[in-house]
Amino acid sequence: MLRVIVLFFCTIICSAHLVAQVKTDSIVSTSTKVDSSQTSVIDGKLIKSGDKIHPIKDSLDIKNLLDLPEAAALDKKWLDELYSNALYDTIYKSVVEMSYEPVEYPELSTDTLKARLARLNARTPFNVEYNASLESVIKSYLKHRRKSFEKLMGLSHFYFPMFEQEFATHDIPLEMKYLAIVESALKPRARSRVGATGLWQFMYGTGKEHGLEVSSYVDDRSDPIKATTAAAEYLNRVYRIFNDWDLALAAYNSGPGNVNKAIRRSNGATNYWNIRHNLPRETAGYVPAFLATMYIFEYAKEHGFKPERPDFQLVQTDTVHVKQMISLNHVSEATGIKIEALQFLNPAYKLDIIPKVEGKSYTLRLPRTAIGTFVTNEDQIYAYANAEFEKREKPLPELIKAESKITYRVRSGDYLGKIARKYGVRVSQLKQWNGLRGHNLKIGQRLTIFPKNHNVTTTTKTPKKVINTAGKQVYKVKSGDSLWSIAQKFPGVSVDNIKEWNDISGNKLKIGMTLIVSK
């Protein structure tokens, strides 16, 4: 307490000393005489007593700064995309960290579960026999993941008809459709930590091997139909190796090599449940998760599930072949369909743009109610899209022609700012035209330039601007001065005032330079 009192009195003494101190700033006197009793200098101007003073906005005010609306909208879309992975992450975690401890769930007795699994086993080629581990997984899902499954059941109304059609064509058990829930939680743009993408979680190389295109605009791994076709082909390949659908599932997750290692380490056993302890941890939980999901979907009614109604049924949509490059935003404006709905129906287009590439065909999936509008007005819609694309920022200034470019060879002492001023262009343009990431240049390096001053060959020095200080109050810059600190020395003078009166664009000052501090 004593220390606080002492500090308080020291502060008062120092303040009194500062008030009494004589000002010693180096102000150069001029011939102007100011009668302080009748006028005063405010905001750099002589103001007579009684004159109305208008406020000037402080250039340093940051209380009301606003974000760029377009950038804020992009942030929101990105955050929405990040958070929409929640269900996928939950399922992935449940598989990797699966626990087989007994779960208390009185609503489902062991005898009832055994009877239901036996009926399910009779109508599917998968081995759905009862065991304690599978019982714990089923009861855990029923107890802790009811809302997640209701949402997945809603989505399944849209995706399962696609899956069943492709699997029927390739002689794959229709129950394999439940694998997409374990793989991706029915999220077409799901992406694992190692880069596996889409409903069926294809890696880049495996996708390419099965004809799935991956480019800057398109990722077929996210296309529900194309990716399902590829998944059916791959599942058929691994089934031909093991002749067992449980092992084919395990191989789909970890690869045939890991399954073969587990068989060797299990003395030749080929039943999944007998080799499970020798499989990678994720794969060990993979088949139980698949079988538990199958059980819950097949007996959803008995467990009182109420699926969320999907926005679309597959039969309520149709596709059209796209003839020209178009974005989903253009389609949304032309048809009135919300962009979110178009993104859901067309997940393979990474940038929401459907490209036009020679030799390739791309489709647009739309609600049936919008198909007629699109086809009837196709030419008009494409013309609108083309006009909108033309409005986008061009990589080169519009008035510059390709033949006007020059090649400049970097000399000793050159830097980007110097070269940019010489040819009347911006540093950012120099970097863009020449693919430069930094500001470093090498002597002899050649730069492509599209100059505004095309005929410039030598550097012309800009004449120094002479500031007339006659009859004005001036201040000579000292070491440690800044525009802000100088403005504080003269009541009513702002940083913007000093910049305007002295024709200063930046904030750098040189010691000894003379500044006008009144108008």
From TrEMBL:
Keywords: Signal
This protein's record includes keyword Transport: no
Cleaved signal peptide residues: 1-20
SMART domains: LysM (SM00257)
Domain LysM residues, every copy: 406-449, 473-517
PANTHER family: LYSM DOMAIN-CONTAINING GPI-ANCHORED PROTEIN 2, MEMBRANE-BOUND LYTIC MUREIN TRANSGLYCOSYLASE D
Family under the similarity heading: Belongs to the transglycosylase Slt family.
Protein name as it appears in the record: LysM peptidoglycan-binding domain-containing protein
